[in-house]
Amino acid sequence: MKDTCIRAINETGTIKVSVVTATSLVETARITHQTSATATAALGRSLIAGILLRNRLKEEDEALTLMIDGSGPLGKIVVTGKNDGHIKGYVDHPMADLPTRESDEKLDVAGIVGLPGTLTVTMDLGLRQPYTGQVALATGEIGDDVAQYLYQSEQVPSAVGLGVLVDKDLSVKEAGGFIVEVMPGASEEEITELENTLRGVKSITALLSEGLDAEGLMHALLPDTNLKVLSEKPVAFVCECSKEKVADSIASLPESDIRAMIEEDHGAEATCHFCNRTYRIDEDELKAMLS
User: Fold this and answer.
1) What span, in angstroms and rounded, lies between the C-alpha atoms of 275 and 272?
2) Could you tell me the CA-to-CA distances from 74 to 190, 209, 277, 280, 287 in Å, in that order?
3) How far is CA 115 from the centre of its chain?
4) Kind of pairing, strands 172-182 and 158-166?
5) For strand 158-166 and strand 267-271, is the pairing parallel, antiparallel, or unpaired?
């Protein structure tokens, strides 16, 4: 089953919903960064949130970056992607972990993220300056924090569900999420009905465990709502780094810095935070930049 993101709206235009299935996407991130179980859940939820939030972008080359900077052992979580369905991300300390919570035996995402902290969303819309919004972390569970961001920064009441189920062998068994937004003009009756409906819905990972795809997930969330699909797009964990981009970055440095790389290190090496690929620029390539 391919990972997919669907956006839809109800007949009156008062409720928007975005859903994503992301099991393969999050598993790719886990393998790339060799994350612990709790780090996988935290990074996975953040990647899912990034996919859902990037639906606010219009053009394919517009980009969104989500950064969660808590005070817990995980350090920063950074997720970035364009409106083409590709997304990537990393955490400062991928092997950081915590015991499961005693209260419910679930992974302690809030604990590993840590309070106090901030959630920052930056959208590059091709304008002179990108748009940036920031809120204090509400709970560290990430879904609650995204909902708070939407309400405080964009004045959009919403329900956010993000789920990552990690198997005993540390692989990702299920991953997905949703954002349901209440738009201007929604009646109190609609809002109450929506709240009651979502209150009775199973967890995202439970629904995915039943074999639902993105469309099935959408209808399970809002079973009595007629929805019009606005877009449907495959999503994946993809990093666009390359040796050419690394070389371009080095070539833009002052000549004295490049000479120091030649004389002291006889080359240059760079590792991408997002995919862990390492690129080597040898001495001759550095000399060619100077000429």
Assistant:
1) 6
2) 39, 28, 21, 29, 40
3) 19
4) antiparallel
5) unpaired
Q: Which residues of 153-180 are buried (b: 16+ CB within 10 A; e: fewer)?
A: beebebbbbbbbbbeeeeebbbbbbbbb
Residues constituting the chain? 291
Tell me the residue type at 70.
Answer: G
H helices of the chain, where? Answer: 23-33, 37-53, 109-113, 143-154, 188-199, 204-209, 214-221, 243-251, 255-260, 283-290
Interval 230-247: pLDDT, tens: 999 999 999 999 999 999
* 91-125 burial: b if 16+ Cβ within 10 Å, else e: beebebbbeeeeeeeebbbbbbbbeebebbbebbe
Give the model's pLDDT for residue 1: 67
pLDDT of 182: 95
pTM recorded for the entire structure: 0.95
- CA trace torsion 136, 63, 279, 264 (10° rounding): -60
**Integer angstrom CA distances of residue 100 from 35, 57, 72, 108, 163:** 16, 36, 15, 6, 16
Q: Write out pLDDT tens, residues 99-126.
A: 999 999 999 999 999 999 999 999 997 7
Residue type present at position 193:
E
Asked whether the predicted pLDDT for residue 210 surpasses 80, the reply is: yes
